[in-house]
Design brief:
The complex is a heterotetramer of chains A (169), B (101), C (490) and D (632). Chain A is mainly alpha-helical and 169 residues long. Chain A has six helices and one strand. Chain D is mainly alpha-helical and 632 residues long. The chains are: A mainly alpha (169), B mainly alpha (101), C mainly alpha (490), D mainly alpha (632).
Amino acid sequence: MNLFNILFYSIALLIVVSTGLAVTRRNLVHAVIYLIMSFFGSAFVFYLFGAPFLAALMVIVYAGAIMILFLFIIMMLRVETPEEQLFPARQMWPAVAVAAGYLVVGALLAAHDPAAGAVLGPAQTEPAVFGAYVFRNTWLAVEVTSLLLLVALIGALFIGKRPTHESEE
Amino acid sequence: MAGIPFGHVLALSGILVALGVACATARRNLIMILLGVEIMLNGASIAFAAAALRWQQLEGQAFVLFIIAIAAAEVSVGLALIVHLYHRTGSLDPEKFNMLK
Amino acid sequence: MEFSNFPYLTAILLSCVFGLLIILFLPDEKKQAIKQISAVFSGLTLVLSLVVFCTYDTGRAGLQFAERVTWVPSLGISYFNAADGFSLPMILLTGIVFFTGVLTMRELELRVKEFYALYFLLVTGVFGLFMSFDLFFIFIWYDVSLFPMYLLIAVWGSTRKEYGAMKLTLYLLAGSALILPAIIYLHVAAGGTSFDITALMRPGTFSPFQQKLAFLLLFIGFGILAGVWPFHTWSPVGHVAAPTAVSMVHAGVLMKIGAFGVLRVAIFLCPEGWKFWAPLMATLAVIGIVYGALAALSQTDLKFVVGYSSVSHMGIVGLGLSTLTVDGLNGAVFQMFAHGIMTALFFSAIGYIYDRTHTKMIPELGGLSRVMPKASGYFILAALTGIGVPCLASFWGELVVFIAAFKTYPVAGVSAVGALVIGALFMLRVVQRAFYGPMQAKFAHLADIPFHLGIPRMILAAVIVFFGLFPSVLFDVIDSAAVPFMRGLP
Amino acid sequence: MTYPAAADLTLTAAIAATALPLAAFAVILLLTRGFPRLSAALSIAAISVALVCAGLLLVRHGHLETPLEYSTLWMAGGDIVVRVGFLIDPLSLLMLMIVAVICFLVQVYSLGYMAGDPGFARYYAFMSLFAWAMMNLTLAASLLQLYIFWELVGLSSYLLIGFWYEKFSASEAGKKAFVMTRLGDVAFFIGILLVLLNFGNLSILELNSPRAGFLPPAVVTVSALLIFGGIVGKSAQFPLLTWLPDAMEGPTPVSALLHSATMVAAGVYLLARLFPFFSMSPAALQVCLAVGAVSMLLSATMAMVSRDIKQVWAYSTISQLGLMIMGLAAGDYVAGVFHLTTHAGFKALLFLCAGVFIHACGGNDMFEIGRRGARHLKIPMICMIIAAAALSGVPPLSGFFSKELILAALAGRPSPIWLAAGLLGAFLTTYYTFRLIFIILFPRGEAQAKDAHADGHNSEAGYRVMAAPLIVLAAVTGVLGFGGHALGRFLLQGFPGPVPGAGHPTWLPFAALGATAAAVGLAWFEFGRRGADQVGFVERVEPLRELFRRRWYIDDAYRWLLDHVLYRVFSAFCAKNDQKVIDGAVDGLGGSMAAAGRILAVLHTGSVQFRLLVVSVVLILLGLYYFVYPLN
């Protein structure tokens, strides 16, 4: 049991627990906060796996931007604690069944896969190397993604407008 | 024992995806559905990062990068839609939005 | 492959398309202008078809007026138009029916622009199908001609129009659902590099089994459109529901598409399958001939009578196609032409009568000959053509088909000839009930066909008599395709 | 095609004779429908030219050793070649002359008869159409051409019978005539196909040549019988005889022209035309003989009870056609054709006279005509008596000679039945003919009030126009009989078929005359003598009278077949099958599709989460699939 292992398993536990808590919160703000914790954990996992740039990105974009956006929206709409039933049985049991099935099948697949047995050790990718790789090998995807982000920006602006002339549509 | 078996990382990401699925399908709240999707994406990202380490290939990490970017796009549009819907109907209950039925 | 200097066939298509576009850009209110533009462009189409028909060289076998532009080289799809002796009569027929149909609808008031636009689209598809030698385009044109039918019947029709339109569309789409797999199957079986009929029809392209399979699919698929028994019930219902000009095109030309498709696609590409399934074709055709005539006996609606007589007459076409002889093909194509003109005249006359009397129920009519001698005369002429009176066009088609059938299938030939009696019985019965007898007071004020509405009927009647007296004009053309085709068969 | 120069005039004349009426038809129908007098003039002009041409041809080819044949291609496609042309031989020349003469006379007569009819122009158009078709039929060089014009003749018959289409019975009769002859024509057509297939040629000359003898006898018999089917239809023989009496609904000149003298005789003409061919099959001839005899006797019995003057002549036409067929079938070509010729003359005359009476008295009932003073119309009355005597075979009128020849031929048959039937037929014919004559000559009782209609049309000019053809025909009837020998010689020039042996038992003319005299006597006793109650012996027997009046129930049988079998069973079955079975199946299929769709639509809740769930389930299944079938 070295430090690498200890760190991974404890963080994995943190991620699972906080995600589980996030899923089950009635208060949406709480849920988002737990999820931010979970994303921090993920960021740490990335760091462990030798991707410091991704870890930083995770913290900045996911935990920092996306989740805060969620918080903004929740607070703006004043829907912190919805009144409806948290887990209606009609929906929960199928969901649980599907999730369980998912786990079982995933476990089966993973156990079956010889690759699953391989052991991962510490490693490091320089952000500069990663950046060079991304822009050399996947430049087209980068361009497409940037275009997508632009479209999303415009789309969000357009959709998010307060529907003032609703009656005409 | 030096290092983590790849299967354990897959298990972690699997659990995350399963939680995401459960969240997205069981909660009657549009925001929670979107959160569930984020959780699933997160699980997938972890699996990709681990795979990158496992095979010493940078494609996995590049994929994570794009996942984050696309998640950002998706969340912005999704939340805009939610805001729009909330303004129109005053509710976030997904069962009410079934006009395409 | 010979390329003539002027692309007549494309010009025909383009004159339809230009007409369509100009109509689309005219304002709704200018009904008169729309009608005039339609008449001009359909007239242009007719003139071009006539030119093509007359300049066709019957002494030379093979395709003429060929035009080919490759469209998708990897799949072998090309815009390939040409005319041979089989398609020329059909092109001429379409031209005549199109033009007379436009003129027949001069009194239309409801949504004139949309009507003519759809009508032009329909005819474009029909023309395209008759000209095309590319399987892919044949399928496209087939669907182009089906799509407007639904709207034309459902909007401008009468008597259960929605039901009729829906039934027709579903039947024909079912046909197209059989044709498409067959076309793809043939395309793939030939190596997936060509949709060109002239290339695919080389002997040895398909194995006998492939031919049998594809032929059956194609025969049923196109046969639905040709009103082959027992897939015919859409046709009387559709005829009845459709407005006059559409009935004319529908019975006059659209049903020919089916028979023509059987000939051009199924028989051309799968001669082995043709030989294998010919007895089935003959059986269905004879059943259709007898059955259609019998069913027509007990109809009370003028259009239903004509609808069922179409089933019977198209049975003769099917019988001709099934005989595996030059004569059979000759007679079948001639009969297609004659029947097209004849039904167009039928519906044109009925259309006028219905416009004036507001009924097409035979018991309510009666004595019309006195008030509308011309309209009745045209109907009676068409009825006599349908009976197979000599010196009217239909006679020759029937004669040649019967001779051919008698050689190949004596029993079928005899039964088909016997059905002529029933044909005479129901036609004359209708004529007697609807047009003879004392004049009814309620119709006394009605006027006969005025001159400007008489023109299309006159043209059709003249065509019937012309080809009845000079059948060789048409037979020479058909023969120039049928003889080389049959000689080329293994 | 080149012709010998000398033949050119012949060809031109033939073309003119056959084409001009068509031109008249087209011009009248298209241009001059509004001008009745002009139309009539056109039509008559055309037929006069045709008549002149026919006469020219007859004179030119009075001594014709070998038949002339001209033909040109009409239609060719594949293996089928249809030739159109003229076959000029004694038979066709004779028939052409008959047709032209009677057409001409009837058209002139119609000027008076049809005067003032609203459809005057149409009438002449149809008459021209008929003349064209009939002349082409007469001159047809091939069986197919003959068939084509055979059909066209039927068409003009249909149009002319139903000329007064506002009368229900007229249009019904036209339809009946067309459909019944069609029935025969179908057999005829199949017979033609059979010949074409086995012989490969439809030329009449070829068929009559010895080359046809190489055909298998069975084929000859079957095709001859099938062709005879056409003759049965056209000449209204048993069992298709009932259309002809109904056809009397048409205008009387039409009946005279089409339904006695020419069109119905076309059947007999065809039999004569193909006489050598038919002679090759004794079995077929035997059938013809039997059919002719049955038709002759049946229709004679029907004529005995009819009160309608035109119907009597119609029955008599059937009867005489039957006699001609018997004569031909008995092997005497000349006798049959000779009787055809004489019959055309006197029967047309009978009808035209009847037409004058009907016109004058405004009714068809012979008792009524008699009461209204028909005997005061001297010319038609005398002409009618002459024609009736000819029909009965009273010497020295034409009918006597031709009938005698036929009876002689029948006497030549091994079985005496045929001669007995012939004599019985002669007896009956004479009886009903004189019954009619006596009824009209010696009316009993008072006429019902004359309606204005009868007098209105009876203008002097019209009467004179109508009388002229009568006198011509009466003269012909009077002298034609003596031309028998010349006619026989003319007909037998170059005739390829068997020539009947001359001579017959010497007692035969006396037997025939005896039968005639007895019949006249009986008719006189029952109808003519003072104090006779004018009720025939047949009419005293109720069932017999009913049987004859209802045409031996043949019509009822057809009606029953048509109504109960064709309409109620077959036709109704097809229509119902379409509505219930085929449409039902299709609609049912559509309905079940829609129902299936509704079941599936339950799954389609429209909920976002439900879709997510489904996606997840599919992913699980996909995972399971890869677990079971690993990628590598």
